[in-house]
Amino acid sequence: MLQETEFLKTNLSKTERIRWSSAGDPNGPVIVLFVGIHGNETAGIEAIDNIKESLKSDDWDLHGTIYAVTGNIEALKKGVRFVDVDLNRLWELFDTEQDYSRLNGPDHPSEYLESLQIKSALDTIFEHHRNEAVEFIFADLHTTSSESCAFILLNDTLSNRDIARKFPVPQILGIEENIHGTLLSYINNLGYKAIGFEAGAHMAVDSINRSEAFLWMLFHNAKVIQLDKQAINYHATQLQAHPDVPDTYYDIRYHHYIEDNTKFEMLEGFKNFDIIEKGTPLAYDHGELIKAEISGRIFMPLYQQSGNDGFMIIDTVSPFWLRLSSYLRKSFVHKLLKYLPGVSQLDNQIFEVNLRIARFLVKDIFHLFGYRVTKKDEYTLTCYRR
């Protein structure tokens, strides 16, 4: 039975940020769900509110606590992806020279104020459960501008893999290297498990149904509720991808970033995970025809007039690579990375790589050991341990 947490009544009763919460055993997991981070993606909101009604009407015995957190409230009111800046791209700007807190008064983007409210709500949740909860699990619900099966996005940590592989959908590794400043990366950098769920096209009814199925299975997998076998099979069937899209791990091999989305036009007809060959015409950018630089599967083709990610190309990750990376991340071998040619250790978690010296398989090697790899300049990579 849905019971609003006492701390929510006393501490957050004056904000719209927490849509609802459901309290059970305080020593169980705490699940925090984000919906509406983009204001034109409402399937997750409908799903989470349907879940709320089910928890109200049915006699559920919760072993833990669930919070539903609303994302970009102003953008949701206007039905747009964002008002000033993308709320899911600014979470790496805090405490940098680009931090919006350095701006004055009305110059603050609407989303900066939204992010401060989200951070405040999270801080309150952490503080309330810090000495009781066995773990925190975060999930961010989204939809896409193109037709798509459901899939999961995750920063490639072993703990995130443990959550994601329990769902019968494709899983995309290492999204944080191509899309910077996401809320998921912020949560992961705090040391917590976090995955993103993409349910399908923005306006598709299936996206609502899949979001609900994902949530019920997440609650069950986290042992917050107990589903029977029939319910598990039903929700798994709701989630299952198209038979031509294996529910395995993929990584991003190519990313077409666009500076001006008004000058970008994706060619019609592409759906998420469509197989493409090298040389396939894909889009026009500033009037120039863009063809696929590699073969693979098209990923998140942009069919809306906002956003800077034109499209990506993904391919499957071998089971051998996954097993090897899992072994190496738990071993002492990563301590030897500093002895590789061209590698300098900045601290216990960060390396820099001189590409004039280390020219081959640099990203592959550091990915195996669980490092996020970013480009500092033309000849330097910075590798952060996830």
What is the element layout, followed by pairings?
Layout: H1 6-11, E1 18-23, E2 30-35, H2 43-57, E3 65-70, H3 73-78, H4 110-129, E4 136-144, E5 151-154, H5 158-164, E6 171-173, H6 183-189, E7 193-201, H7 205-221, H8 229-239, E8 249-257, E9 264-266, E10 275-276, E11 281-285, E12 288-291, E13 296-299, E14 309-316, H9 319-330, E15 343-347, E16 350-354, H10 362-368, E17 371-377, E18 380-385
Query: Cα distance, first to last residue?
Result: 37 Å
Rounded to the nearest angstrom, the radius of gyration is 21 Å
Structural class: alpha/beta
State the strand order across the main sheet. Answer: 1-3-2-4-7-5-6-8-14-13-10
CATH architecture of the largest domain: 3-Layer(aba) Sandwich
For the largest beta-sheet, the strand count, sense and barrel status come to: 11 strands, mixed
CATH T-level topology of the largest domain = Aminopeptidase
Assigned CATH class of the largest domain: Alpha Beta
Count of structural domains = 3
Poorly predicted runs are: none
Helix content: 25-40%
Mean of pLDDT: 90
Beta-strand segment tally: 18
Question: What is the 3D form?
Answer: globular
What are the secondary-structure elements, in order, as H or E? HEEHEHHEEHEHEHHEEEEEEEHEEHEE
Indicate the proportion of strand residues.
Answer: 25-35%
The CATH superfamily of the largest domain is Zn peptidases
